[in-house]
C-alpha cells in the first residue's frame, strides 16, 4: 500500500506531524481532540522540562567535580514542618502486592487477573518503546479500562478475558528524558511521558473513575525523578488535566519511584509538591543502584562490588528504605517496597523452592521494616508475597498510621552515601556483559521485559551492568576472587565480550542467535562500556535503532 505524506491518514491539529505507521486501531487513540490535549501539555510544559533537564546536567557536573548529593538547606523548612498529603483514596488503600509488566495485551489480562492488588502497566523500563508497542499499549489499556479486553492465543488455542475481580490499574509513563520521535509537535519530537500520560488520561479518565477509582483517578507511577522541581511539573500537568476534564482537584493520584540517588535527599520535597496528588513513594532499588554508580562515575573511591552483592542489607540501601518509610508515613502516604524479580524454575523444583524462600525472606524484611506493599514480577510469586504481608498486617490495608519508624529520623547523609562492602570478580564482569548484551538484543527486537537466568530483567538491570563495566574499565579495577591481581582493561574486556558472546550463542542456540540482534546489541553495549564519556541512559542511544518513520524513510539508523 502506498502512503502519502507524513500523517496523511491521521486527522491532526495544526503543528502536529505523525511519522509513525498508520493503523486504524491507532487512529482511534490518535484522535484530533486527544492530540490537541497532548499538544497543550507539550506547549505549556516543554520549557519547564528543558530547564529541569539542564539542572540535572548541572548537578552531574558538580558531582563529577567532587561534590556529593545531600539534603538542601534551602528546603529544610519543608522537611521539618508538620504537614500531610491529601487522604489516600479508598480505592488505593490496600496495595499489599503489586505486579508490574509491559502494556502488552496478554500481559495486561494476566496481570489484572493475577490476584495482586495493583497492576502497574509500564510504558517505561519494561517496554521497548517502538511505535507499535507504544500505540498498541494505548489501545490495550483503553480496552482494559472499558472491560472489553480479550486475547486469543492461537498457539495454546485459548482465549484470555478479564475476571470479575481485577487488580487496580496504575500506569507508568516514560521518564522526562525520553522523546517520542514518531510524533513531532512544532517541529520537534514530543516528550514521551506527555504522550503516554496525555493519551491515556484523555481516553480513560471518565471510565476509570467510574469503574475502578470510586470517583478518584486515574492512578500513575512516576519514574526517574531527581529533584522536587520535576515533581512540581507533574503536579502542574495533573492540575491542567483535571481542569480540562472538569474533574475535582486531587482526582489524579501518583506514586513516585525513588530510584535515583539525588532523589533520596528530596523525598519530603517531592511529596510536598505533589501533596494533593500523592499516593506515596516506592523503592526502585535496581535503578537506585544504577544511579549510585552514575552519580559517582568520577569518584574512584566509591566503586561498587559485584551487583549480586548489593542487596537491601547493605547500609546505604537499608538507610534508603528506612528513610523512605519514615518519610511516607509521617506524611500520610504509602511506602512501597521493591521488586521480587524471580520467575518460576519449572524444571528444578528444589531450586524453585529455594528462590521462593529468598522472596519470602525479602518480603518479610520489607513488611517488618514498615513497607505497605511490595512488587512482584511474576504471578506465581503473588501468593507467597501476599501471605507474608497479610500475616503481619492481618486485615489492615496498610501500615501508614501503625508503623511510624520514628527511629529512622536520625538517618544521615553519610548513611545514605556509605560505600557498600564486597568484592569485584571476573564472574561479576562476565555476568554484567552477558546480561547487558542479551537485554539490549531483546530490546532491539521489541521486548523490554526479558527472562534471563531465572530473573525477569528490565532496563534497570542492563543499566547497572553497563555503568559498572564502564566504571571498572575507567579505573582499571583489580578483580579479586579466583583471579587475584588481574586488572580490568580494554584488552581483557574485549576477550570477555568475545567469550560471553560464544556462551550466549550456546545458551540460546545458533538459529536464534543468528536471527536475533545479538551482534548489533554487542556493538551498542560494548561502545557504551568503553566510551570516554558515560551516557546518561542506555535506552536513549538504543532508541535511535527502533525509530521507524513512514513513508519518507524506511528507518532512522
UniProtKB/TrEMBL annotation:
Pathway stated in the Swiss-Prot or TrEMBL entry: Carbohydrate metabolism; glyoxylate cycle; (S)-malate from isocitrate: step 2/2
Gene Ontology CC terms: glyoxysome
One GO BP annotation of this record: glyoxylate cycle
InterPro entries: Malate_synth_C_sf, Malate_synth_sf, Malate_synthA, Malate_synthase_CS, Malate_synthase_TIM, MS_C, MS_N, MS_N_TIM-barrel_dom
Superkingdom in the source lineage: Eukaryota
Pfam families, sorted: MS_C (PF20659), MS_N (PF20656), MS_TIM-barrel (PF01274)
Location(s) in or outside the cell: Glyoxysome
UniProt domain Malate synthase C-terminal: residue ranges: 424-545
Record bears the keyword Amino-acid biosynthesis: no
Catalytic-site annotation from UniProt: 172 (proton acceptor), 458 (proton donor)
Xref: PROSITE patterns: MALATE_SYNTHASE (PS00510)
Gene Ontology terms, MF aspect: malate synthase activity
Residue ranges crossing the lipid bilayer per the database entry: none
Enzyme Commission no: 2.3.3.9
Stated family: Belongs to the malate synthase family.
Name this protein carries in UniProt: Malate synthase
Organism: Phaseolus coccineus (Scarlet runner bean)
Lineage of origin: Eukaryota, Viridiplantae, Streptophyta, Embryophyta, Tracheophyta
